[in-house]
């Protein structure tokens, strides 16, 4: 077994200012706007037809899980909705949709531009579910935006534009996604139990997973997201690290999730975790309060040979979200055991574990890791529809694949003993071009390691001393200088590799200190500098490239 630790992550976690996705509330909620807005009424969908299709499709392997259907739309500032001009010249545009019976709804904008100072909100009729504010930070080069879900069958969209940027905003709605089922609701309540609840054998992600993997779980659950493809289908996936350790938001999911969708419209919800975990019982999980959603991505590579798809999220997730970019192992060696983290049926985050040993097998034409029926399937939990694309981790907490398909399911509070299979990351590494392989994106330094460990978002934040200490040059050919400014304190430095191992340690007691790193192999390291009197410290990423 390869042995690794998470000393880097544990020692250097920082306290971040709390931040949530939703900020403020629509201005109309605070004003007495008398001008009414009529609902745009969509025709009822044929729920019986959808259910009959789902009975067939849900049994197919390697197919994303359908929760809704798109309704074509063509609505913008000029042809629909209602404008209200406020006394100071600011403006509010509102539009409302009614799609009878919808459990929840989301929106696809084929033209989205919000100027600085303007805000966009989505909410339901009762104002119990709110998305926003979407601001200029959500503008994308493609001009496309897909939103997260809003509960209910009546959806309001409200845009506020200050007078200073009057006329600059551009919004055009291409489609509305009518969701008729989710993990805890169904448009026909009598079918909920049969079709729409993740199985009772599932374990919420914070359920016990084994002392040998608890630390990895607590780190890697912060990488996994519930993926809304914004075409009526859902999947799972997760952030993955690269050899530059630079927090580029690469997101790994399944190739079959990409098919028929546009990553520019994707939206992801991170850290949707129950605060009161339910572990293979018939009780319902408490829904997590966090609403860390982000929209828009760009395709980087995909390949049906291992059913992988790698995208880059178009904006950086806030550091305050405290996310993890997971490490990976491309050696393609057999793991001691494997763990999956995922969102079955779009439910709150779950976890599963197999101890009996995966095998290498071709499934549905792809090179996969298989959790075998011969081994009794999963020992803890299962996967289900909506889990597609979710990461498979080895004993060291590194990604070795992503979910393609399988027959695993619940039988009461136990699993059914059937198989699942995941595309092998070791095979995904190589391909005929950068658009069909991982190595160009996950190894930008071209150091070709067999594995790297996870990157913790807060590792990139300097603490306390950043204004008093300079470290240069960086990248370095092996010689690096630490310069103190306006301080006479004595400092200790340590250089730590990506496995959390301390490889060099020393004292800084001069204004400029030379540190020799020429004995280190090329790659990424971290330098921790601590004040010996106050014990304050800072952390810097160092790249050695001789």
Your description of this structure?
- This protein has 546 residues and is mainly β.
- It folds into 3 domains: 27-189, Jelly Rolls, CATH 2.60.120; 206-452, Thrombin, subunit H (Beta Barrel); 464-544, Immunoglobulin-like (Sandwich).
- It contains 7 helices and 40 strands.
- The radius of gyration is 25 Å and the shape is globular.
- The model is unreliable at 1-20 and 192-196 (pLDDT under 50).
Compact overview of the structure:
By secondary structure, the chain is mainly beta. It is about 5% helix and about 40% strand.
Q: Could you state the CATH homologous superfamily of the largest domain?
A: Trypsin-like serine proteases
So what's the oligomer here? single chain
Structural class: mainly beta
Distance between the termini: 31 Å
Number of helices: 7
| CATH third-tier fold name of the largest domain | Thrombin, subunit H
- Overall CATH class of the largest domain: Mainly Beta
| Proper CATH architecture of the largest domain | Beta Barrel
Cα Rg: 25 Å
Nearest-integer average pLDDT = 88
Structural domain tally:
3
Helicity range:
under 10%
Shape: globular
Largest sheet: 8 strands, antiparallel
The total strand number stands at 40
The residue ranges in which pLDDT falls below 50 over 5 or more consecutive positions are 1-20, 192-196
**What fraction of residues sit in β-strands?**
35-45%
């Amino acid at each position: 077994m390869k042995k690794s630790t998470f000393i880097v992550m544990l020692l250097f976690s920082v306290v971040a200012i709390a931040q949530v996705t939703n900020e403020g509330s629509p201005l109309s909620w605070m004003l007495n706007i008398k001008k009414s807005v009529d609902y745009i009424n969509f025709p009822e969908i044929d729920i019986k037809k959808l259910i009959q299709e789902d009975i067939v499709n849900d049994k197919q392997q390697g197919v994303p899980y359908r929760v809704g259907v798109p309704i074509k739309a063509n609505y913008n500032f000029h042809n629909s909705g209602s404008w209200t001009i406020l006394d100071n010249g600011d403006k509010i545009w509102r539009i409302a949709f009614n799609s009878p019976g919808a459990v929840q709804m989301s929106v696809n904008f084929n033209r989205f531009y919000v100027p600085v100072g303007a805000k966009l909100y989505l909410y339901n009729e009762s104002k119990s579910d709110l998305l926003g504010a979407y601001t200029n930070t959500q503008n994308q080069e493609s001009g496309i935006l897909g939103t997260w879900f809003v509960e209910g069958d009546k959806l309001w969209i409200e845009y506020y534009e200050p007078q200073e940027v009057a006329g600059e905003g551009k919004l055009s709605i291409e489609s509305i996604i009518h969701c008729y089922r989710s993990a805890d609701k169904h448009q026909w309540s009598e079918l909920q139990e049969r079709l729409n609840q993740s199985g009772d054998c599932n374990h919420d992600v914070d359920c016990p997973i084994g002392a040998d993997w608890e630390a990895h779980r607590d780190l890697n659950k912060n990488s996994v997201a519930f993926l809304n493809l914004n075409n009526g289908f859902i999947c799972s996936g997760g952030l993955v690290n690269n050899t530059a350790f630079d927090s580029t938001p690469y997101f790994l999911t399944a190739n079959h999730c990409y098919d028929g969708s546009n990553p520019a419209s994707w939206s992801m919800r991170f850290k949707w975790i129950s605060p009161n975990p339910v572990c293979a019982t018939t009780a319902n999980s408490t829904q997590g309060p966090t609403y860390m959603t982000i929209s828009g991505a760009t395709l980087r590579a995909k390949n049906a040979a291992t059913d992988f798809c790698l995208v880059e999220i178009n904006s950086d997730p806030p550091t305050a979200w405290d996310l993890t970019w997971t490490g990976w192992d491309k050696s393609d060696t057999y793991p001691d055991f494997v763990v999956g983290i995922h969102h079955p049926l779009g439910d709150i985050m779950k976890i599963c574990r197999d101890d009996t040993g995966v095998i290498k097998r071709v499934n549905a034409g792809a090179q996969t890791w298989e959790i075998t029926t011969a081994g009794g399937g999963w020992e803890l939990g299962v996967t289900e529809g909506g889990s597609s694309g979710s990461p498979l981790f080895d004993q060291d907490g590194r990604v070795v694949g992503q979910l393609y398909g399988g027959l695993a399911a619940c039988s009461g509070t136990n699993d059914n003993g059937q198989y699942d299979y995941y595309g092998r990351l070791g095979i995904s590494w190589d391909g005929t071009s950068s658009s069909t392989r991982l190595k160009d994106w996950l190894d930008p330094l071209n150091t070709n390691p067999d594995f790297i460990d996870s990157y913790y978002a807060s590792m990139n934040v300097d603490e306390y001393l950043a204004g008093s200490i300079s470290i240069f040059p960086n990248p370095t050919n092996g010689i690096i200088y630490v310069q103190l400014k306006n301080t006479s304190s004595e400092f200790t430095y340590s250089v730590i590799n990506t496995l959390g191992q301390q490889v060099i340690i020393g004292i800084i007691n001069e204004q400029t200190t030379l540190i020799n790193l020429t004995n280190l192999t090329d790659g990424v390291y971290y330098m921790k500098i601590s004040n010996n009197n106050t014990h304050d410290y800072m952390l810097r990423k160092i790249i050695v490239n001789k």
